[in-house]
Design brief:
This protein has 399 residues and is an all-alpha fold. The protein is 80% helix and 0% strand. It has 19 helices and no strands. α3 packs across α7. It is globular, with a radius of gyration of 20 Å. It starts with a helix and ends with a helix.
Length: 399
Amino acid sequence: MPSSPRPLRRARVGIAAVFAVHGAVAGTFASRIPALQGADHLSAGQLGLALVMPALGASLAMPLAGRITHRLGSKAALRLLLALWCLALVPPAVAPGLPSLCLALAVYGAAAGMADVTMNAIGVEVESRMGRAIMSGLHGMWSFGGLVAAAGGALAARQHLGPRPHLLLAAVVLLAIGQLACTRVLDVRPEPEAEAPPRFPLPPRSAVVIGLVGFCAVFAEGAGMDWSGVYLRDVTHAAPGMAAMAYTAFACTMAVARLAGDAVVRRLGPVRAVRAGGAVAAAGGVLVVAATGPAVAIPGFALIGIGIAVVVPLAFAAAGHAGPNPSQAIAGVATVTYTSGLVAPAIVGSVAQGSSLRVSFALVTALVAVLVLAAGALRSGAGAAGGVDQARAQERTGV
């Protein structure tokens, strides 16, 4: 374990790179959703059904992450799970129809969720040892990776590169980068006498409360990731390349806000930061709903990205510092928040099928406005989320 600032900085760089790779996989897939929909001739309702499957797979598999980490250690577990996540881009690319696409996306989500829990637990451990908040910045790297990958997806769409060769190439490249990044992360192992966690532990009550705040943000994030390109194409009649830029704007502003989020949280505190973010996201939602062209809708998606940026990092940080088992607490929060990802695509697609995508995003706007009222649930984790106790960090690291 690192016992001086230099190894800690190395560990932070490593886990930040892992977050970026994880985000790049998600961004690559999200940027090609409109093309995959067209290739498989899916309706809005069918696409909504398919997009339920990643969150379903993640929700079922995430509780297993703690047991895998206990058995293998954090570094080996992360290398395995991140590799599975990168390679999970391949099955959706070659799925010939809706049933096989749903199965492929369930596997995709399972790999995503387990890698997500493991890397967040390692991030919380690095934050504890460093003695200052870094989780928003780590999630900023996730968004940065998504941004770069989404920009690549927009370029691929403009060059008329099909989604299948694009996703296959991205899987290989991101696999190599991810394995290199994992060589720098902490290798946290349980005490020899520690009991293995249960295979499917129930989330603690505190994780459920914190997770409900993340639920609203993840609903908006899932809607923005999965439906922004479709919204621009179908509602504002944007060209394919411009439609792909909707997610790019969303990911770009989220990345910038998260990279700056640690300083903002230290200044405002977690509760006020989430309340301000909810107000900004709601304003962006109003722009999206009112938009008649891409020039208004894209800034709207950008504001949603800014507004929800720090919510999930704060939820994970608060959960990870709340008890002796960060992986279990984070898995609990992640399960609750991913449930939002589970229902969001189906609700957005169903509402769009029954009325319109404008009405779907009116619902998204209402949920992010709830953050203004619900932010107080993070108050109990404010100290952990806003900054880790320095004395505790010094005791654990020997610095």
